[in-house]
Amino acid sequence: MDSMFKNRLEKNFNFHKKWAKRENVTAFRIYDRDIPEYSYSIDYYDGSIIVYEYERGKASLRYTEEYMQADKEQLEEVILSIKNLFAIDDSKLFLKLRKRQKGLFQYERQDEKDVTKIVSEGDMKFKVNLSDYLDSGLFLDHRKTRQIIKKSVEGKNILNLFAYTGSVSVAAAYGRAERITTVDMSNTYLKWAEENFKINKIPLEKHEFIRADIMTWLPTVSYRAKKYDFIFLDPPSFSNSKKMHESFDVQKDYIFLLNQCEKLLTSCGSILFSCNLRSFKFAKDLFEDRFIIEDLTKKTIPKDFRNERIHHAWLLTKKV
Is 291 helix (H, G, I), strand (E, B) or coil? Predict the structure, then answer.
């Protein structure tokens, strides 16, 4: 007998696959904790599936062996429903646990299976790794953000900070940006960004890839003549990486970051600032004398995400 969960999953997939086919999107979310009793997020990657299970908080009542057994049985039901609905085996199904913890756990390598594929997003293509990291290498919730950037950077000099695997840099290249500087602390992700450029036949020699701790790199760049027309700033919520001089907390450090970025902007330049900390508070009054500020959050949440707090986004345009 079909379960409530399977029925919802099938309904969601049938709805989303229509616009996805129309827009040539082959990676999208098909379940986003729709049913409270089934606390999972499920992403579709061109025939493969990633299931994200959420770790229970310590405050959960009576989390006994009986509850753990119920969780196990529910997960088995979820996996069986997915296998039946999509006619796939274990080789195309990946289970990930999202833990309640601070730090860089989501960016660290957790396996060595190297199950990768190329997914499409309109005319762009991206390499994803389904097996080895908590995240695949492509933040699906920023699909609309990439489209906004693609449409607004023609002829501009672009700086992509905390660039991860460079998907925003690829979008900027497709938007005919003049020059793109991609900065991240991880050599692994910078090489991945270069791979994404190659997949999209974007010449590497026209652009710049820099490995650096952005918190220490930005002040050194600020005093040079180099200026940017558009800066994408999407820092992690927290970081305690050994590569960093100090631990990073976006709520504490975003003011420093935005002030440093302002120094690098051309006279009418813009910063698109994004943050995925749910509790984040943006002190607009600290910047309104220097920037025109537009809240882009609603405009950047894709239709396949029920959680409208998956990220925040603001466009800060320098006042003339």
Answer: strand
**Residue 242 has what pLDDT?**
57
- Supply 23's token pair: 């827009």
- Contacts of residue 138, defined as CB under 8 A and 6 or more positions apart, other chains included, come to 27, 119, 126, 128, 165, 167
Render 154-220 in DSSP notation, one character per residue.
Answer: TT-EEEEES-TT-HHHHHHHHTT-SEEEEEES-HHHHHHHHHHHHHTT--GGGSEEEE--HHHHHHH
What are the C-alpha distances in Å from 220 to residues 212, 214, 215? 11, 10, 10
Kindly report each contact of residues 35-41 with a partner whose C-beta sits within 8 Å and lies 24 or more positions away, as own/partner. Answer: 35/4, 35/5, 35/8, 37/74, 38/5, 38/74, 38/78, 40/78, 41/98
Low-confidence ranges of the chain (pLDDT < 70): 1-2, 56-68, 70, 99-110, 222-225, 240-246
The answer to whether the CB of 159 falls within 8 A of the CB of 264 is yes
What is this structure's pTM? 0.91
Helix axes 65-86, 4-22, angle to 10 degrees: 40
Cα–Cα dist 291/303, whole Å: 29
Token output for 220: 């050194």
Question: In this predicted structure, what is the pLDDT of residue 264?
Answer: 95
pLDDT at position 1 is: 45
| pLDDT tens-digit series, residues 151-179 | 999 999 999 999 999 999 999 999 999 99
Phi first, then psi: give them for residue 291, nearest 5 degrees.
-130, 150
Q: How far is CA 234 from CA 13, 139, 166, 231, 311, in A?
A: 29, 11, 12, 10, 10
* C-alpha–C-alpha distance, residues 139 and 97, integer Å: 17
Q: Which residue has the tokens 């970051």?
A: 257
pLDDT at 198: 98
Q: Which residues contact 268 (CB under 8 A, 6 or more apart)?
A: 229, 317, 318, 320
223 CB contacts (<8 Å, ≥6 apart)?
none
CA separation, residue 313 to residues 11, 20, 140, 157, 307 (Å): 30, 23, 15, 21, 14
